[in-house]
Automatic annotation (TrEMBL):
Family: Belongs to the 3-hydroxyacyl-CoA dehydrogenase family.
Domain 3-hydroxyacyl-CoA dehydrogenase C-terminal: 194-269
PROSITE patterns xref list: 3HCDH (PS00067)
Protein name: L-carnitine dehydrogenase
Species for this entry: SAR92 clade bacterium
Keywords per UniProt: Oxidoreductase
Amino acid sequence: MSTRSIFPNLNEVQHVAVIGTGLIGAGWVAQFLLYGLKTSVWDPAPDFEDRLMGQLQDVFSRLHVDQDHQARCLNALNFAENLEAAAASAQFIQENGPENLQVKRGILEELARAVPPDVVIASSASGLPMSELQQGCLHPERLVIGHPFNPVYMIPLVEIVAGSLTGAETVTWVEGFYRSLGKAPVVCDRENVGFIANRLQEALFREALHMVKAGDATVGQIDDVVRYGLGVRWAFMGPFLSYHLAGGKEGLSGFFERFGETIGEPYSRLQAPELSQELIDSVLDQGELAFGGQSIEDAEQWRDDCLSQILALSNREGGMYRVQRQQPGEQVCCTKPPSDGISDNGC
């Protein structure tokens, strides 16, 4: 006979808290609000309310969210006076403090004291180990890493990483919770520094820096090679499936048979180059030329428009379907994301 979970049923979660409203925290706020969740927020910065409202308006504009939907989102937003007030009555908490072990640990300790043990506390930490973050926290078994990718409200991936004291039930619950928000969570088997995605993208970036430093390629050339070549494939399949299809009828085994020796070729300079001022200046100068002087705001709009179209084309698997939440208390249903990335339709 199975025992009842101490955590709330997923369809009963209507109130969440977001601690820290920088780039990632604001993205989580937008994600939760767009899915109809009451969202309490707090940040130690004195002007965080105005800054967050500006960030949300930018998101709504880029996603072409209509006025009625915007009004419902903002009605569900609650600015708290302190951390304890934000966490009060929340059924889930997403922490987004600075990427500093002592600072994050202090925030998590305070949160753990403020909420009952049936509230999962997830940290957006991008590389800090949860095993160190949860030390000294009350009920550390409900603390877990939930590492998203920018922009949070569009990129489906969330890496879930347990600490040594994290309970298996916590991992299962938070995986289901993120899926209910249209996310595509990946549960990491090991608590490695950098998890999975950052290790991959930093390896590529290190190679790119070596190429720029050596004069082998420019910033613009490297970006074009990725977006017109590698990135087109990577939008819907990873490197292993790509090589599986490059191996002929034998798949990956055929690839290793034909091209395995090239893996040992000295193509890569995996050790990071010295980040000298000369290299930084070279990257910045070439970047300005490659990016055409486009403002950050215009680039973010272009990025989100492109992501909307990619996600609309790629939603063939369950993890790529958005789960559409209606008003609090109403039914949760799945819908395909339309071309603009936001649906306000009922079930």
